[in-house]
Specification:
With 337 residues, the protein is an alpha+beta fold. Helix content is 28%, strand content 26%.
C-alpha cells in the first residue's frame, strides 16, 4: 500500500510539472510582492499563457506615465525656457564692437540683430550718425557692408535684370534714404546743391566708393572720398568724358555751362559742344566750348567749377594748338595808316 501511495503521489507531481511546463507566470504589477504569482508563498496563485497583447503593454505604459508624473511633480524642477532676446542696447554695443574691430568709422545710433549665417555668425544692421549704415557679420575677422553700396549694386543689377537676386539688403528706414547722408557729403565737398536723389554707383581705380547725387533743378555730381577729402566731378564734365549721370537731365547738364561761364566775356555763349583740353601751369582745367552763334572760347576753370579766365578762339591760336571745335576766322590785322 505504501508503494502504491508513493506511485500515486509521483503521478500527481508529474502531472503538476507537466501543467507548469505548458503555462507561464504573469509578470508582477508594479508594487506587487517580490515572489512571482503561482509560487508557494503566493496565497492566490495565478497562471496565464504568454500573451503580448494589450494587458501587459497597458501595464508598462501606465508605469511609464506614473514615473513621468512623479518627475513633473519633483520639487524645485522647472521647465527649460528659451533664452531671452537681446535688448536694443545689447544689439547696439555688439554692432559697434564689430564695426570698430573692422576699422569702420561709425558711431552706431541704432542696431538690430538680423539673424545668423550658415556658419552661425550673428549679423547686425547698424545705423551710423552722419554716415551710411552697415551690415556687420560676426565672423573672424568681422565682415562689413556699406548699405548705400549694397543698394547701388542692387539698383544696377535690377536695371539689367528686374528679377535679379540682389542678396541681403539693409532694411531699417533711415538706411533706405540716401539723401540726408549725401547732403552732408555734398556740403563737405563745397557743392551748392539741394540733393534730391543719390546712390553709390561703383568704385574708383583707387578703390574708393563713388556716389552720384542729383540736385534739385540743376546739374548733379559724382563724389569720391579720397585721402585728401572729397573730390567732386560735375555731370557736365562727365558728359565730355562720355559718362552718364542717372539723376541729371540733358537740359540740366547743358544749362550748367551758364553758371560756369557767368561773369566772363563768354557769359552769353549758348554752349553746343565742349571738350577738355588739359591743365595749365596754375592747375586750372582748360576747356574749349563752341557757342551756338558759331564762335568759341577757351575757358580756364577752377576748383569751384567757374571760369577764371576766357579766351576767344580767334585770339587763342597759341593755346594748346588752338580751337578745334570752332572754325573761327583769324583775328583781323590792324589797318595801315
Amino acid at each position: 500500500m505504501l508503494v502504491a501511495l508513493g506511485g500515486a503521489c509521483a503521478l500527481v507531481l508529474a502531472s503538476a510539472a507537466g501543467a507548469a511546463a505548458q503555462t507561464q507566470t504573469a509578470p508582477p504589477f508594479e508594487g506587487a510582492p517580490a515572489s512571482p504569482p503561482g509560487s508557494l508563498t503566493d496565497a492566490n496563485p495565478t497562471t496565464v499563457t504568454r500573451d503580448n497583447s494589450s494587458g501587459s503593454r497597458l501595464n508598462r505604459r501606465t508605469a511609464e506615465e506614473r514615473r513621468a508624473e512623479r518627475l513633473r511633480r519633483r520639487p524645485g524642477q522647472e521647465e527649460e525656457k528659451p533664452p531671452a532676446a537681446p535688448t536694443p542696447e545689447e544689439n547696439k554695443l555688439a554692432a559697434q564692437a564689430l564695426l570698430s574691430a573692422a576699422g569702420v568709422s561709425c558711431q552706431v545710433t541704432e542696431a538690430t540683430l538680423l539673424g545668423v549665417t550658415a556658419e552661425q555668425h550673428s549679423t547686425y544692421e547698424a545705423v551710423c550718425a552722419g554716415a551710411p549704415g552697415f551690415l556687420a557679420v560676426g565672423s573672424t575677422p568681422p565682415q562689413t557692408f556699406n548699405c548705400l553700396e549694397l543698394a547701388g549694386q542692387a539698383e544696377t543689377s535690377r536695371l539689367r535684370d528686374p528679377a535679379a537676386d540682389v542678396g541681403q539688403q539693409c532694411t531699417l528706414p533711415i538706411n533706405l534714404d540716401p539723401v540726408p547722408v549725401l547732403s552732408t557729403y555734398a556740403r563737405a565737398a563745397g557743392i551748392p546743391c539741394t540733393v534730391d536723389r543719390g546712390s553709390a554707383i561703383g568704385k574708383s581705380t583707387a578703390g574708393n566708393i563713388i556716389y552720384e547725387i542729383g540736385c534739385a533743378d540743376s546739374d548733379g555730381y559724382w563724389l569720391e572720398q579720397t585721402a585728401d577729402g572729397w573730390s567732386p566731378t560735375p555731370c557736365w564734365d562727365l558728359a565730355i568724358q562720355q559718362e552718364t549721370c542717372r539723376y541729371s537731365t540733358a537740359a540740366e547738364t547743358k544749362g550748367a555751362w551758364s553758371t560756369v561761364l557767368a561773369g566772363t566775356d563768354a557769359a552769353a555763349c549758348d554752349v553746343q559742344q565742349a571738350r577738355r583740353v588739359g591743365r595749365d601751369a596754375q592747375g586750372l582745367t582748360v576747356y574749349e566750348v563752341k557757342c551756338g552763334a558759331g564762335d568759341g572760347y577757351f575757358a580756364r576753370v577752377g576748383t569751384t567749377f567757374t571760369a577764371q579766365r576766357v579766351h576767344p578762339c580767334a585770339e587763342a591760336a597759341t593755346i594748346a594748338g588752338g580751337c578745334t571745335l570752332t572754325a573761327a576766322a583769324p583775328a583781323t590785322a590792324p589797318a595801315e595808316n
